[in-house]
């Protein structure tokens, strides 16, 4: 839907009106036949129709284009009243800047910022409402440190609240200790399995070294026996040489 034409000051050119809702164009699009529409209006029309609502020429959503620049400039220069006029706002500004003004307008109805409060109030009166809102929060005056709602003043019990908090902390601590315990046990089991594997590997290596040492000693004894045999043969040869 477009901007209500009654909000505008002075004459509004017919070409700046939506061909569907007949209000002043809002977020406008233009068909190849040069008729202009509000974006929401034309997309809603094309759900059930495939032609221009003015001249019945066939159109498709992919053929819609932004408004011509000169028309867009004329549209932006139009002057209109703030939508909060009935609440007391007397601002009149250009269509180009109306959204920015209305986002900040002191007469806009905004929700109370306190959780649980459903009151809608003018922005200019918000501070006064917050000061008396039954959902406003404040720190407990008795020093327990809790933030309480004004509506809960009569039900607030510092000792009960602190006892509840203590129980929650105790439960949380127990959970954390259990988690740390399980994690430590898991790490120890992992390290234990790793050590057992390393021990098995080392034991195999020791057995292999023993086997190699045994073979080496056998080879040494064989070499020593061969050396003695060789020495005896040399001595025998020397003795025979002397006899000759």
UniProtKB/TrEMBL annotation:
UniProt-recorded Gene Ontology molecular function terms: ligase activity; zinc ion binding
Coiled coil (residue ranges): 192-243
TRAF-type domain sequence ranges: 101-144
SMART domains, per database record: RING
UniProt entry keywords in alphabetical sequence: Coiled coil, Ligase, Metal-binding, Zinc, Zinc-finger
BP GO terms, sorted: regulation of canonical NF-kappaB signal transduction
InterPro entries per UniProt: Znf_RING, Znf_RING/FYVE/PHD, Znf_RING_CS, Znf_TRAF
Domain RING-type stretches: 18-56
A Pfam short name: zf-TRAF
ZnF bounds (TRAF-type): 101-144
Protein name: RNF41 ligase
Organism: Thinocorus orbignyianus
């Amino acid at each position: 839907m477009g901007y209500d034409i009654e909000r505008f000051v002075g004459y509004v050119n017919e070409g700046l009106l939506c061909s569907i809702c007949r209000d002043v164009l809002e977020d406008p699009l233009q068909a190849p036949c040069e008729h202009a529409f509000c974006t929401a209006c034309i997309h809603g029309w094309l759900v059930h129709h495939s032609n221009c609502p003015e001249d019945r020429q066939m159109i498709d959503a992919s053929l819609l284009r932004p408004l011509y620049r000169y028309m867009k400039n004329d549209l932006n220069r139009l002057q209109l009243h703030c939508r909060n006029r009935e609440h007391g706002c007397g601002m009149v500004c250009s269509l180009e800047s109306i959204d920015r003004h209305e986002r900040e307008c002191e007469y806009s109805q905004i929700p109370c910022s306190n959780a649980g409060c459903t009151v809608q109030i003018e922005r200019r009166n918000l501070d006064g409402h917050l000061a008396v809102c039954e959902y406003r929060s404040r720190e407990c005056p008795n020093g327990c440190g809790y933030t309480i709602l004004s509506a809960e003043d009569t039900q607030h019990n510092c000792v009960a609240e602190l006892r509840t908090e203590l129980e929650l902390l105790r439960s949380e601590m127990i959970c954390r200790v259990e988690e740390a315990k399980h994690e430590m046990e898991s790490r120890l089991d992992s390290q234990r399995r790793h050590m057992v594997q390393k021990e098995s590997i080392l034991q195999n290596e020791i057995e292999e070294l023993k086997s190699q040492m045994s073979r080496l000693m056998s080879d040494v004894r064989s070499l020593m026996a061969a050396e003695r045999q060789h020495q005896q043969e040399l001595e025998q040869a020397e003795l025979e040489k002397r006899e000759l």
